[in-house]
Design goal:
It contains 12 helices and 4 strands, in the order ααααβααααβααααββ. By secondary structure, the chain is mainly alpha-helical. Helix 5 packs across helix 7 and helix 11 runs antiparallel to helix 12.
Length: 353
């Protein structure tokens, strides 16, 4: 005869937390946000203390960083009756003691999603500087991008938006500045200090290689073993008109300036002279493009209607090329699908050149 022991599960409900206790305890740190900080929940411990402002604890190899008890991400909101660390933080700010810079763990707005971190945005001072250098100093977008470490497309977008903003201010239109300041205060920003001798902090990578449409197809290109196959050879294999990677990057002049600086160490005058030459060449290219665009606009016949503007241009059927895929053909802007996956096409090389 065997005896069986049965047990009845008991559901234990956690004791409810009084919202006023949390607001007067750890939540007091969020009533008056810390200036110059994102103030995300993950930057504070359950007692409301700023983690990066306190002394670094001794590292214990036996502790697990992913344990909620050690990180304070989950579990109870202990320390509600403890003294909040906000008073001590206010004393440190009043005494002039610097607060450490935000770390990667401080930029996680969602404590349960440790893979997401807020990316920095341009500060208002940096946007004003971008607009000033293009509008007042008449610098090109490429030059401003290289000087401030901001990608060229973003520089152009900032200039256009600042132009519209100034136009609206002159027209007396209302701007949602309180909303913009509130959103900006919740995001990390790339600062800009006017008059600083040190170069500005780069906002992003500005020399990433863009993906060209000619390189998105499958390609089998056999070469002899004795052939030196480099970036220029790879570009010619995809297309005859495709430039190598070191010339298709947004700022090829930076590579050339780095080579000049390596060859003439300590000769800042040589590097500066070469930089001026590159800027003059770029200005000449921009002027030529403006003249070509103006001539194209003048040659087009325009008919204005109440809603639309119709444009008529003379075309030639031969502009599409023998295969109909030339750049000058009508409809080329809409794209033509490649033939690498089309049925019946030969996908393997038939000869070695």
């Amino acid at each position: 005869m065997s005896s069986q022991i049965t047990s009845t599960p008991v559901l234990i409900h956690p004791s409810p937390i009084n919202p006023s206790s949390w607001l007067n305890g750890p939540g007091a740190a969020f009533r008056d946000p810390l200036p110059g900080s994102t103030n995300y929940l993950n930057a504070y411990d359950p007692q409301g203390n700023l983690i990066r402002a306190r002394a670094a604890p001794t590292t214990d190899p036996s502790t697990d960083e992913d344990d909620p008890k050690n990180t304070g991400e989950e579990g109870d909101l202990g320390g509600l009756d403890a003294v909040s660390g906000k008073n001590q933080l206010d004393q440190n700010i009043a005494s002039g003691k610097p607060i450490p810079k935000e770390m990667a763990d401080d930029l996680m707005p969602f404590p349960l999603n440790r893979q997401f971190r807020s990316q920095p945005v341009l500060s208002e001072e940096l946007r004003d500087e971008i607009y000033r250098r293009i509008d007042k100093e008449k610098k090109s977008v490429r030059t401003v991008s290289a000087e401030l470490g901001v990608e060229m497309q973003r520089v152009g977008a900032v200039f256009r938006l600042k132009t519209i903003e100034n136009q609206w201010m002159q027209e007396g239109k209302m701007l949602a500045m309180p909303y913009a300041r509130a959103v900006s205060a919740m995001l990390p920003k790339t600062p800009f200090v006017s008059g600083s001798r040190t170069p500005p902090l780069p906002h992003e990578s500005i020399n990433d290689l863009p993906v060209h449409s000619a390189t998105t197809r499958q390609l089998f290109h056999p070469v002899p073993e004795s052939m030196h196959f480099n970036r220029a050879s790879a570009a010619k294999a995809f297309s005859r008109d495709l430039l190598p990677a070191d010339k298709r990057i947004p700022h090829p002049e930076l590579v050339e300036l780095a080579k000049v600086a390596a060859q003439h160490r300590g000769r800042e005058d040589v590097v500066k002279a070469r930089r001026n030459e590159l800027e003059q060449q770029e200005a000449a290219v921009l002027n030529m493009k403006r003249e070509q665009k103006a001539a194209q606009e003048a040659a087009a016949q325009k008919i204005d209607t109440p809603r639309w503007q119709f444009r008529f241009e003379n075309i030639k059927a031969e502009s599409a090329g023998r295969d109909g895929r030339a750049k000058g053909g009508v409809g080329a802007r809409y794209g033509i699908p490649p033939q690498d996956r089309k049925k019946g096409q030969i996908k393997i090389p038939t000869k070695v050149e």
